[in-house]
Design a protein that fits this description.
Strand content of chain A: under 5%
Largest sheet of chain B: 2 strands, antiparallel
Number of domains of chain A: 1
Number of strands of chain A: 2
Oligomer: heterodimer
Radius of gyration of chain A: 20 Å
Largest sheet of chain A: 2 strands, antiparallel
Radius of gyration of chain B: 36 Å
Order of helices and strands of chain B: HHHEEHHHHHHHHHHHHHHHHHHHH
Helix content of chain B: 40-55%
CATH architecture of chain A: Up-down Bundle
Strand order of the largest sheet of chain A: 1-2
Number of strands of chain B: 2
Shape of chain A: elongated
Structural class of chain A: mainly alpha
CATH class of chain A: Mainly Alpha
Strand order of the largest sheet of chain B: 1-2
CATH topology of chain A: Fumarate Reductase Cytochrome B subunit
Distance between the termini of chain A: 14 Å
Structural class of chain B: mainly alpha
Chain lengths: 226, 447
């Protein structure tokens, strides 16, 4: 597993491509979506003009949504049919201690606790972000499809369902946007330790040193004799 | 205007008529003072032979008048100057009054030499009904008060060269009328002096669809001043008899726009106005008065882009909403909807108020004929969404995330507002603590 340079693989090529497709589509969706949500602001009006008007904005949004949904489907299929991805998903499953680890992190930072909680392959923060994006994608895709086929769904549901659908789409997108822009960006970009950027998403490799410190349980599993 | 009035005065003072039968040249030889018999003969002749159209026989033969007024007749002006009071026979060419004799109108000039200041010509002697109307109108009232600026009959119809209004030579003809009224109504001084409406209205009218048609010579197709304001009985908008009173405007526009007026009459607006709910809109409230332009003009109050704000003038007016218990937030809920946003960003084919509620025949949803009645939704929505068939009911269309209009949306919004708030507090807390921890550990050599 470990090569001679002291690095171990953290993300496979497939996972890295999935990540790139995911964030590329999400960035486009955020820009085109938020400008519609905040269509009254001057900035939004400027961006909408940049996007080619309110109708073309919608087309870009739906195209990016298709990319996101395809990426999501690809990920599900990988998890189901590839051993490696199956393990990836298995490692992502939230366990009881993940809910308590935040308290540990807070305590550690406040100096009330000597040690950082020990993480396995994925820290509780990474797991929460993974699930936030996963659930968000499901909710947004479903509500988005309803918005897309508004005529058909108008005939199937009373309008209040569609009204709820619209407002859920809008707010759920805001939640996802904030999770990724505020929290995730801090953890992988602005965090002083990785600033300006953690390169794991590009190389897919993590040094043994980092692994030992950030994911001690995984390190112990991988290198039980060191 | 002043020149008009002056013209009128001149007409009273010195106008002379000749009869058709008096031939191409007048007989200058007779002097009425020295030849009373001849005068009498002339009078009798005119009465018996010429069958005066007005039925009033001139007491003096026109030739007598012309003998002076084609020549040396003058009057003294206020500053003592002598001013010629000429009459040219050509003035009567084609005039509708060419069959009258001078004294028919200038009755007090029947004897010669006549007195220095003649009375104002009284058109009412023949034109009784029109005069009565005129006197009741704002112009007639002003004249009665002695207002020198107010127009008299001659101001609009001319003095000797009077033509039928249908004749293009008449100043009151449809093609000339706007210019005629504008002579006074674009005069800024007169406007200030008499508190007339702003001269801008004439300019606005000239740019309006009616004004442009008139300019292009399509005078039959377009309304000119008198079509809306009346010709003789011109009244202010507050007078219930006025053509431009709120209750009467529909009928005035409806004279030409028959189909539209019929639709409007049965609409909720038309009915309400008839019931005396004066806030209810009539034609001009949506289309403007003098400013009125075609729907396809993007500046028009009724252009697709401007319809929502035009309706909002009343439907967002809290006083009107309360008084008539109208549903509120119609405009704000539209503006936030997909249709509203699309419209705002220039997609003018997106639905606006009238796309669903109809243009003139706006009916309440409960009316089975209404475009927004449940039974008609498939057709109404289907105009733009042809796939939408068999829609039984949509429920509330105008909703906002407010307790009054949509409880579901309200609670979802409440939930997310709290959720996002707490989430953000946690994120920021996390980041702050993380930075704090790092700095502290670095300080203690532990980082």
């Amino acid at each position: 597993m470990a090569d001679n340079t002291g690095y171990v693989e953290r993300f496979t090529l497939s996972e890295r491509v999935t990540h790139i497709l995911l964030f590329a589509s999400l960035i486009i969706l955020s820009i085109t979506g938020l400008t519609l949500k905040y269509h009254e602001s001057t900035v939004a009006q400027w961006i909408i003009r940049l996007e080619g008007g309110v109708l073309f904005r919608g087309q870009i949004h739906r195209f990016a949504a298709l990319v996101l949904m395809a990426t999501f489907a690809y990920h599900i299929l990988s998890v189901l049919f590839s051993r490696k991805e199956h393990e990836f998903f298995h490692d992502m499953i939230l366990r009881k201690k993940d809910f308590g680890c935040f308290v540990g992190i807070f305590k550690y930072n406040l100096g009330l606790q000597k040690e950082m909680p020990a993480f396995d392959r994925f820290s509780c923060i990474e797991k929460f972000q993974y699930w936030a994006v996963g659930i968000g994608t499901v909710l947004l895709s479903l509500s988005g499809l309803v918005l897309w086929g508004e005529t058909i769904f108008m005939m199937l549901f009373p309008k209040w369902v569609l009204d709820l659908n619209r407002i859920v789409h809008s707010f759920e997108a805001t939640v996802g946007f904030l999770v990724l822009v505020v929290w995730h960006q801090y953890n992988v970009h602005l965090n002083p330790r990785v600033f300006p950027m953690s390169k794991v998403w590009l190389t897919g490799k993590i040094s043994k040193e980092d692994l030992k410190r950030d994911h001690p349980l995984e390190y112990q599993r991988r290198f039980p004799h060191e | 205007m002043r020149s008009m009035v002056r013209g009128a005065v001149a007409a009273h003072a010195g106008a002379v008529r000749r009869t058709i039968s008096s031939g191409s040249r007048p007989h200058v030889a007779l002097s009425p003072t020295t030849r009373p018999a001849g005068l009498l003969l002339g009078w009798a002749l005119s009465c018996v032979l010429l069958l005066m159209p007005s039925g009033v026989c001139g007491a003096i033969k026109d030739s007598a008048c012309i003998s002076c007024h084609e020549g040396p007749a003058y009057r003294e002006t206020k500053d003592g100057r002598k001013e010629a009071v000429h009459f040219k026979r050509q003035e009567l060419t084609g005039s509708i009054h060419k069959g009258l004799v001078c004294a028919d109108c200038h009755a007090d000039a029947a004897g010669t030499p006549h007195k220095k200041e003649l009375e104002r010509v009284n058109c009412a002697r023949c034109h009784k009904e029109v005069s009565l109307n005129f006197e009741r109108g704002v112009h007639g009232q002003a004249l009665k008060r002695g207002d020198k600026d107010a127009p008299a009959c001659t101001s609009c119809h001319g003095t000797h060269s009077i033509f039928k209004v249908a004749d293009q030579r008449s100043p009151a003809h449809r093609g000339n009328q706007v210019r005629l009224c504008a002579r006074c109504h674009t005069d800024v001084e007169l406007q200030k002096k008499h508190k007339l409406p702003s001269p801008d209205m004439i300019k606005a009218y000239q740019n309006s669809v009616h004004g442009r048609y008139v300019k292009e010579g399509k005078t039959v197709q377009a309304a000119v001043c008198s079509d809306c304001h009346g010709a003789h009985l011109v009244l202010g908008p507050k007078d219930p008899e006025s053509k431009i009173n709120r209750s009467n405007i529909g009928g005035v526009c409806g004279r030409c726009h028959v189909q539209i007026f019929n639709e409007y009459k049965v609409s909720i607006h038309g009915k309400a106005l008839k019931e005396g709910k004066m806030e209810s809109p009539t034609c001009t409230d949506c289309h403007g008065e003098h400013t009125l332009t075609l729907v396809k003009d993007p500046q028009a109050r009724v252009s697709a882009k401007n319809v929502p704000t035009t309706c909002a003038k009343c439907h967002e007016n809290q006083e009107i909403i309360k008084k008539y218990r109208l549903p509120s937030d119609r405009y704000s809920s539209y503006v936030g909807s997909f249709h509203g946003v699309a419209m705002k960003y220039g997609n003018v084919t997106a639905a606006n108020c009238i796309s669903c509620h109809e243009t003139h025949r706006i009916l309440p949803a409960a009316d089975p004929e209404s475009s927004i009645n449940d039974h008609n939704l498939s057709r109404t929505c289907g105009k733009c969404h042809p796939a939408m068939k068999d829609v039984a009911s949509l429920g509330k269309i105008h909703v906002e995330a407010k307790k009054e209009s949509s409880l579901g949306m309200f609670y979802v919004r409440q939930f997310y507002t709290w959720f996002i708030g707490i989430l953000m507090a946690l994120f920021v807390g996390y980041i702050v603590l993380d930075v704090y921890g790092r700095i502290k550990r670095k300080g203690s050599g532990n980082g």
